[in-house]
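Good morning,

Attaching, inline, the backbone tokens for the sequence recovery test we're adding to the shared suite. The designed sequence is right after.
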């Protein structure tokens, strides 16, 4: 056995609770006198409600109330218009909520919702993405943070002068997050105090939003999320169901439970927007890139602007003296897109890495070698050195482990029976981000230690890793540390997003624990009966972090596929990834994040897609019977490794985030393997049999 310190494969602390069904998710919390709510989605894509008839719904046995824009409480101001539910008769997209039935039982609520009669005046809708859509505009920023356009050198001239040119358009479809636990809320009012059990990636944000919407001081709102059954970004911001549940609880005077029914999730919980991406790469005959342009076209809803930074990885990956990266967006009458695992990097690296594979073929250079030739010590756009850049090491180690050496580059020449086989690879990257956080560390009279911070464990193992960080900083075995996370009454901490959670919360936990250890050492005598407590805030530490370095994680992904030459069915045979992610804090939970990301990337390559129905104006695949996700049988062998990568410029643990990089590049590795197997370039995801026959 070990002390469960950093770097050891400690098992998830809540693992037993989860597998025995005692861990409580948002609607599992028992509350007295609880009722249930079921939302009513709009059946038009654009227009106005002309009347709502609730009589039949209210006549259903057990139905207590029907909320509509006519009787729902008025809400305060927030930035996110998707949360301003039941405030107006306008309909911005199909599936937007227009009413809510509340009843004594879930079944009665569902029957009540089905009996609400809504009449509309429909208007023509516009729901199909095209790069030449007349509404395309240049947003101020993308994903709230990144420069929309960047230009270095003279792309047009350098591209025109290049010996070898690739100019292709790649398309990614809308994708849905579909965490196992749907977006769900239990809302309980006690006088003017509101308690919400919420399935969220960040309780503080939910608290702040509810306080603003319901005109409450934040101290009167408690949001807890002790266990969360996945999120992938879709729970990074509050969703309409929490607002509806709180409204309904106020309206009925009873606690309310509301879990978004799976077929409604696609319309109200965000999705990865479809993209159209033109990539142009100009290189010399040896494959050295001189000109690189990545132009991204996507959409957002009319309610909210959200734009994935899909061209941003092209600013980071390869030496490219002349570069242009742009994003354009149009507003369609569609559900609002939002974060989904590696927003930006995931879509953007599919296009960039697929184009790199095409460049390798055009130059007759091995694709691993092509990446090595274009490796760079400084981030091309900023000119900053990387704090660490293990891309080359990942490429070499991955090629060795996968057995890449001696690969015959010719496409369509290997078969086993009726299966054509092929291999492919791509690179990965993801920024190493960090946000300010607070934490408290307490030495208790019992001899145990308590650590408190409002981190969220969405299934990643964050609770376990934070315990290890505290134990190491305190110099005690992890079994002596009790951790409290997932409640807005705890010291404030940022959202579990952008792969920044462990770096951000962990820094605060490390700081508090280290300060506590120092105080204990100075105390020299017995602890006071009340124990000893230290609180830490990393706002200044994060602000002081040197701006001189570019900080990113990197990786190399390898795939082997087999394609049925009669049916066009593609099967994954192997996925292998090697990642440079700083210091790995817990190899067991880290591996599960990386492997999970790779499986999601394989799923994106071969299975996942959502079709916009132009007539009804909504996504056609709205449940897990029609929206296909990879299951175990789709992923026979998947392995993740990492290189040793000490990096002093990150945070006190030396770690980079690992939640998202696993999905980045996987789809390009798979399409490059499909090309190698069949000779067919699939530039329009997912790979479908009809594209290969
Ligand atoms: Mo992740 S999409 O930043 O939660």
């Amino acid at each position: 056995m070990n002390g469960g310190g950093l770097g050891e494969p400690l098992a998830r602390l809540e693992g037993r609770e989860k597998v025995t069904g005692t861990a409580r998710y948002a609607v599992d919390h028992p509350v007295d006198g609880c009722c249930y709510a079921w939302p009513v989605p709009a059946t038009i894509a654009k227009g106005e409600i002309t009347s709502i008839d609730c009589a039949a719904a209210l006549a259903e046995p057990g139905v207590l109330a029907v909320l509509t824009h006519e009787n729902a409480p008025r809400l305060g101001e927030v930035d996110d218009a998707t949360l301003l539910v039941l405030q107006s008769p306008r309909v911005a997209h199909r599936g937007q909520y227009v009413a809510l039935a509340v009843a004594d039982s879930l079944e009665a609520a569902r029957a009540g919702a089905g009996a609400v009669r809504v009449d509309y005046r429909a208007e023509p809708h516009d729901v199909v993405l095209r790069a030449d859509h007349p509404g395309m505009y240049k947003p101020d920023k993308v994903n709230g943070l990144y420069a929309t356009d960047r230009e270095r050198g003279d792309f047009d001239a350098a591209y025109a002068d290049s010996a070898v040119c690739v100019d292709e358009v790649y398309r990614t479809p809308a994708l849905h997050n579909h965490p196992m636990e749907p977006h769900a809320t239990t809302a309980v009012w006690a006088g003017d105090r509101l308690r919400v059990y919420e399935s969220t990636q960040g309780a503080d944000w939910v608290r702040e939003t509810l306080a603003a919407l319901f005109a409450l001081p934040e101290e009167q709102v408690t949001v807890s999320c002790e266990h969360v059954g996945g999120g992938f970004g879709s729970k990074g911001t509050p969703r309409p169901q929490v607002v509806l549940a709180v409204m309904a609880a106020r309206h009925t005077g009873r606690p309310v439970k509301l879990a978004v029914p799976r077929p409604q999730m696609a319309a109200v919980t965000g999705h990865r927007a479809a993209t159209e991406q033109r990539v142009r790469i100009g290189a010399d005959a040896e494959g050295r890139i001189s000109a690189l342009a990545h132009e991204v076209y996507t959409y957002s809803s009319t309610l909210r602007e959200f734009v994935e930074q899909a061209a941003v990885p092209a600013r980071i990956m390869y030496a490219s003296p002349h570069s242009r990266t742009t994003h354009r967006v149009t507003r369609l009458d569609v559900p609002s897109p939002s974060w989904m695992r590696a927003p930006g990097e995931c879509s953007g690296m599919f296009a960039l890495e697929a184009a790199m594979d095409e460049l390798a073929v055009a130059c007759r250079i091995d694709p691993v070698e092509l990446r090595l030739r274009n490796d760079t010590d400084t981030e091309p756009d900023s000119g900053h050195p990387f704090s660490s850049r293990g891309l080359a090491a990942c490429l070499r180690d991955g090629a060795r482990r996968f057995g890449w050496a001696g690969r015959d580059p010719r496409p369509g020449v290997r078969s086993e029976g009726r299966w054509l086989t092929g291999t492919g690879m791509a690179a990965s990257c993801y920024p190493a981000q960090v946000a300010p956080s607070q934490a408290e560390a307490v030495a208790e009279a019992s001899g145990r230690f308590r650590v408190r911070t409002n981190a969220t464990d969405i299934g990643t193992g964050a609770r376990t890793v934070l315990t290890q960080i505290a134990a190491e900083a305190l110099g005690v075995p992890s079994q002596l540390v009790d951790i409290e996370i997932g409640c807005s009454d705890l010291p404030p901490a940022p959202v579990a997003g952008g792969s920044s959670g462990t770096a951000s919360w962990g820094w605060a936990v490390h700081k508090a624990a280290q300060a506590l250890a120092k105080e204990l050492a100075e105390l020299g005598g017995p602890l006071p009966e009340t124990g000893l407590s230290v609180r830490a805030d990393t706002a200044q530490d994060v602000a002081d972090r040197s701006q001189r370095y570019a900080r990113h994680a990197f990786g190399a992904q390898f795939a082997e596929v087999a394609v049925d030459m009669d049916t066009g069915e593609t099967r994954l045979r192997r996925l292998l990834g090697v990642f440079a992610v700083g210091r790995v804090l817990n190899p067991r939970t880290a591996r599960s994040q990386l492997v999970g990301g790779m499986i999601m990337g394989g799923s994106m390559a071969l299975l996942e897609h959502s079709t916009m129905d132009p007539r009804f104006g909504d996504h056609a695949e709205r449940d897990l019977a029609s929206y296909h996700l990879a299951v175990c049988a789709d992923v026979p062998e998947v392995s993740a490794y990492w290189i040793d990568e000490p990096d002093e410029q990150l945070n006190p643990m030396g770690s980079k985030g690992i939640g998202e990089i696993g999905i980045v590049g996987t789809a390009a590795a798979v399409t490059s393997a499909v090309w190698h197997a069949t000779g067919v370039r699939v530039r329009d995801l997912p790979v479908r049999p009809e594209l290969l026959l």
